[in-house]
Amino acid sequence: MHLSLDECASSVPRCAHHCTNTIGSYYCHCREGFILNGHNVKSKQFTAIKAPVSDPVASTYDITRGWYYWADGSGSIYKTN
């Protein structure tokens, strides 16, 4: 009897978004709006923009990459690298 380890059940996440366990391995896939770029997840919706923002209305932090995202009152989206 051969037991397969569930690599997705690890206490250390192997994938930034979704992990699918297979026999003897696993694969990563992304949430909608993102693509897998090698072993990293890349946003298809946002690009890095360096601009002063005087009226931020929302922000979030991506703990996996260490990036901050924020939006201004006109709907523009920004992120740090």
Write a structural description:
The structure is a single chain. This protein is 0% helix and 42% strand. The chain has 81 residues and is mainly β. The chain has 2 domains: 1-45, Laminin (Ribbon); 46-81, no CATH class. The strands form 3 sheets. A 3-stranded antiparallel sheet has the order 5-6-7, with no helix packed on it. Strands 1-2 form a two-stranded antiparallel ribbon. Strands 3-4 form a two-stranded antiparallel sheet. Strand 6 (67-72) and strand 7 (77-79) form a beta hairpin.
- What Rg is obtained from the alpha carbons, in whole angstroms? 17 Å
| Spatial gap, N to C terminus | 48 Å
Number of strands: 7
Net shape: elongated
Structural class: mainly beta
Strand order, sheet with most strands? 5-6-7
Low-confidence parts, pLDDT < 50 over ≥5 residues? none
Query: Which class of the largest domain in CATH terms?
Result: Mainly Beta
Most strands sheet? 3 strands, antiparallel
Helix content, binned percent: under 10%
Supply the number of helical segments.
Answer: 0
Q: In what range is the share of β-strand residues?
A: 35-45%
How many structural domains are formed by the residues?
2
GO biological process, one term: epithelial cell differentiation
InterPro entries: EGF, EGF-like_Ca-bd_dom, NOTCH1_EGF-like
Domain EGF-like calcium-binding: 4-45
Domain EGF-like: 7-47
